[in-house]
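Milestone M4 deliverable, item 7.
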Amino acid sequence: MDLSLQKKRWRPEIAPPDEEVITEGQKQLKNLLDKQLQKDVTIQQQLSQKRTFTSASAHCPAVNSLSGLTSLDQFQEVDKLDAYTEELKKCGLTDEEIQLKMMADDSNKPQKKRNFGIDPSIMEERLQKIQEKIEKKNVDLDQKDKFHGQKALTRHEMELERSLLRTKVKLAANKLPANNEFSCIFIDYELKLFEPDCII
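Output delivered:
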């Protein structure tokens, strides 16, 4: 082949980089390391990173308290009431708020005597706060799961990460023996990490 033709085909812009390219994963690890080694941390900074979790609730189904002769309709009604109570507990409502919510939902039945004389405006305000808690929980459930410290990558950045990972995997595989079964497993596993279905 003509050497002049080879020189024309050579394009320096597609040559591999001389220095090592840092991936987003390496940047995240470096940030975590710097954060652990940081010594000038104030109490306010630590408190600002505090996360809250939903507290566990004890479930005592009313179905277990049924005894004697019980019809299927009665059993299903109690079971439905248990499921609704558990759903309200997951929204962070207290037992008193749950009773108030159920009493408001069941408008056909008369109110209990101990609630007699409560100002309707106060009752409406408490019901509104209960509804806000339920709506907030539903909004949180509709959103995608987010992990602490997660960084959102654009499509361009994600494609760069895939290409860098594939290059590093191929370079690492070339250093392994060609007849090594572990090399094929290693390549398949590493490449699947950045498949669209596996991306978090």
